[in-house]
Amino acid sequence: MSNPLKPKERLAIPRQHMREQAATERRHNFQEVNLGLETEIAKREALRCLECTNAACIHGCPVGVKVREFVSLVLAGDYLAAAAKIREDNVLPAVTGRVCPQEDQCEGACVLGNKFEPLAIGYLERFVADYERQSGQIGLPKNAPKTGKRVAIIGSGPAGLSAAGDLIQRGHDVTVFEALHEIGGVLIYGIPEFRLPKDIVRSEVENLRRMGVEFQVNVVIGKTVTVDELLQEQGYHAILVATGAGLPHFLKIPGEHLCGVYSANEFLTRVNLMKAYRFPEYDEPVYDCRDKIVAVFGGGNTAMDSVRTALRLGAKRALLIYRRSEQEMPARGEEIKHAKEEGVEILPLTAPVEFLGTADGWLTGVRCLRMELGEPDATGRRRPVIVPGSEFDVPLDLAIIAIGTSGNPLVQSTTPDLKTRKGSYIEADPVTLKTSKPGVFAAGDIVTGGATVILAMGAGRKAAHAMADYLTTGQW
């Protein structure tokens, strides 16, 4: 359907906002914060689209969603067709509609954003994906005839799932191997329920299963079976390593061994995958946050997820300690806003230098230094510089380290002809994502380091394209 409004009339419509659970309520529960758009609000937002001939928003999307076409279908009221249109390029629309940083991707490229607020593409994507799921009429793309080729994908995170969706559509048999007991990778163990309900992930995984993707859990590649065994003994014609970057970094300061110091990976995995947030229904061991002082160190989305989770687990104070200013935080603006509304205390320009504890090894606090911003570093952000004589202590019961990750080396260490680089990341051609080992490709965070869900999905699609060429031609 063509937009019935003239361009000036479209520009007069303000960007529509999504309903949210009240901060005073949501800080005490794990229910979703954002509540989605109502139908009329979604249609009104879709009216803002300028229907650009050369739509920059499509080029801004790492998986190439046909934004103009799906928004036009929203205008026409054909929400199932709109969802099906997204699924042509994105096998996880209900996920990316929630956690994708659209402000830096499709919406960041929207020409409306030059003078006005950009089209709320993420809101509309979530709207049609939720409509589709609730209707039970999933518009799955059709698969090509079977090719007889078998593909193994190691890791069931965003890169692996995206590649699986593309390869199954091309007629190849696809098996996804997951080391943990549930499919989804970081979508399951890393992102809290209040940002991404796990039933949403399970629904999207089930859609891939219906398309023909096979999933095997509790398979640790490198221990249960090796890459060489998959290729030589189990008959797989190509392999994609998409194991993510799940090895946590630490601060490397005295006292980090104390009881009460977690990595964000462990903390979030215990809460999300192992359901500690549903205590006492699930009595999974996680440090009792009730009436405790909790500090998270870092300024990215994982840090925000951790500190907001601690708050919901009953922390009386939830602190975010970050060595740069709030303006330099890499976390999404929406997440920072939500955290502050919920009562998270941000201590910017603060660097930890030592954890303090009791004689029998329990955390009691952290010693910090004040910082000020100096010249920009390699990332373009201003480098934090110590303020002399600014040492001070913060009492703590629990510390969570969320300062980044590197690649888990298990697959690489058991595949000797697979070249790696610093941080245990796998070397892969930037265009084809081929590794040094014939038949083996790598994509996502295990290649690039920690990034976003949608960037990993884009890499998965790129790898799937190259793998399909290899499976067809046999040329490496």
Task: Let me know the CATH homologous superfamily of the largest domain.
Answer: FAD/NAD(P)-binding domain
CATH class of the largest domain: Alpha Beta
Class per helix and strand makeup: alpha/beta
CATH topology of the largest domain: FAD/NAD(P)-binding domain
Helix segment tally:
19
How many discrete domains? 3
Tell me which oligomeric state these chains represent: single chain
Q: Tell me what the CATH architecture of the largest domain is.
A: 3-Layer(bba) Sandwich
Unreliable segments of 5+ consecutive residues:
none
Beta-sheet strand percentage? 15-25%
Query: What overall form do the CA principal axes indicate?
Result: globular
Number of strands: 18
The first-to-last residue Cα distance is 45 Å
Cα-based radius of gyration, to the nearest Å:
23 Å
Q: What is the mean pLDDT?
A: 94
Proportion in helices: 25-40%
Largest sheet: spatial strand order: 3-2-1-4-18
What's the story with the biggest beta sheet? 5 strands, parallel
Walk me through the structure:
This protein is α/β, with parallel strands linked by helices and 476 residues long. The protein folds into 3 domains: 7-135, Orthogonal Bundle (Fumarate Reductase Iron-sulfur Protein, Chain B, domain 2), CATH 1.10.1060; 150-246 and 406-473, FAD/NAD(P)-binding domain (3-Layer(bba) Sandwich); 250-403, FAD/NAD(P)-binding domain (3-Layer(bba) Sandwich). It has 19 helices and 18 strands. The strands form 5 sheets. It has a 5-stranded parallel beta sheet. Strands 6-14-7-8-9 form a 5-stranded parallel beta sheet. β7 (293-297), α15 (301-312) and β8 form a beta-alpha-beta unit. The two termini are 45 Å apart. The model has no long low-confidence stretch (mean pLDDT 94).
